[in-house]
Amino acid sequence: MTDTTNTTSHREPVTVLGLGLMGRALAAAFLEAGHPTTVWNRTPDKATDLVAGGAVLAPSAADAIRAASLVVVCLSDTAAVRDALAPHRADLAGRTLVNLTSGTSDEARELATWSDDHLDGAIMAIPESIGRPEAFLLFSGSRAAFDRHRDSLGRLGNATFFGEDPGLASLYDVALLGVMWGTLNAFLHGAALLGAAKVDATAFAPFANQWIGSVTGFVDAYAAQIDRGDYQAEDAALETHLATMKYLVRESAAAGVDTDWPARLQALTERAIDAGHAGASYASLVEVFRGRA
Ligand SMILES: NC(=O)c1ccc[n+]([C@@H]2O[C@H](COP(=O)([O-])OP(=O)(O)OC[C@H]3O[C@@H](n4cnc5c(N)ncnc54)[C@H](OP(=O)(O)O)[C@@H]3O)[C@@H](O)[C@H]2O)c1
């Protein structure tokens, strides 16, 4: 994380709107780093610990917005942000609004029009990681705003800026969450399969983790193939993958484990093969996801 000064006395004032699980963690990280921190929440009780730690609880969202030039909002969804901020759009003039609420890229682009100096962000972390090096946050929107507030935002976790399209951080967010769910579902399916043979998930986990580590190497190689549009099978051809996928489906059925997940993998692969990629690398499956196969 960025920390360019040894003293906290010149830290810029910040406002955090929304004190749910994540908003409280964001406000606590700013406080801990020495930022004068104003907070607001629809249900004010949630500010008690933060106020005890030095935060100022504003009586209204408008008062909170006016207290700082860097305003971070983290509510449950975009509809909540519209509800909470729509009456106060005039107060946002001249301030940087950083929306850390999850939403779609189009919602991010819509909210970007609400302030001259807007950043949309996504938090790739759980609340307890905020302020630690393992937390990473994605930003897009105003480059000037990111540059101006980089140090402050860096106190929440490692901050990456993706460019001036305010929707990009949200797009990265959902794509990365897809990677998480896909990986976890594969692990959970495997745990169910081995569990049917009385193997504990904790016995399976180290092997799953080792294999996930190997798969990260495939990601780099396949990314280069996707960008080149050249799917030469340098490890295994798609038809070889398909043959093994069928074992996963059959083993699942035999063990009484749900076959939906492996059957979907098989169906996607068959579509790629039908489109002519039988001898190509696994990366050619991207053509199915692109809707071209
Ligand atoms: N928690 C995580 O691990 C995590 C990780 C990454 C991203 N995020 C994202 O961070 C955002 C907040 O998550 P969270 O875990 O903090 O959720 P949460 O604990 O459910 O908190 C939701 C917050 O939204 C406020 N809110 C809801 N509707 C509102 C409305 N109409 N007007 C004003 N305030 C409203 C709530 O106020 P009240 O207290 O008054 O109900 C509360 O402050 C979400 O977009 C989530 O996807 C969370």
TrEMBL record:
<dbReference type="GO" id="GO:0050661">
    <property type="term" value="F:NADP binding"/>
</dbReference>
<dbReference type="InterPro" id="IPR015815">
    <property type="entry name" value="HIBADH-related"/>
</dbReference>
<keyword id="KW-0560">Oxidoreductase</keyword>
<feature type="domain" description="NADPH-dependent reductive aminase-like C-terminal">
    <location>
        <begin position="165"/>
        <end position="290"/>
    </location>
</feature>
<dbReference type="InterPro" id="IPR013328">
    <property type="entry name" value="6PGD_dom2"/>
</dbReference>
<dbReference type="GO" id="GO:0016491">
    <property type="term" value="F:oxidoreductase activity"/>
</dbReference>
<dbReference type="InterPro" id="IPR048666">
    <property type="entry name" value="RedAm-like_C"/>
</dbReference>
<dbReference type="Pfam" id="PF21761">
    <property type="entry name" value="RedAm-like_C"/>
</dbReference>
<dbReference type="Pfam" id="PF03446">
    <property type="entry name" value="NAD_binding_2"/>
</dbReference>
<dbReference type="InterPro" id="IPR051265">
    <property type="entry name" value="HIBADH-related_NP60_sf"/>
</dbReference>
<dbReference type="InterPro" id="IPR036291">
    <property type="entry name" value="NAD(P)-bd_dom_sf"/>
</dbReference>
<protein>
    <submittedName>
        <fullName>3-hydroxyisobutyrate dehydrogenase-like beta-hydroxyacid dehydrogenase</fullName>
    </submittedName>
</protein>
<comment type="similarity">
    <text>Belongs to the HIBADH-related family.</text>
</comment>
<dbReference type="InterPro" id="IPR006115">
    <property type="entry name" value="6PGDH_NADP-bd"/>
</dbReference>
<feature type="domain" description="6-phosphogluconate dehydrogenase NADP-binding">
    <location>
        <begin position="14"/>
        <end position="157"/>
    </location>
</feature>
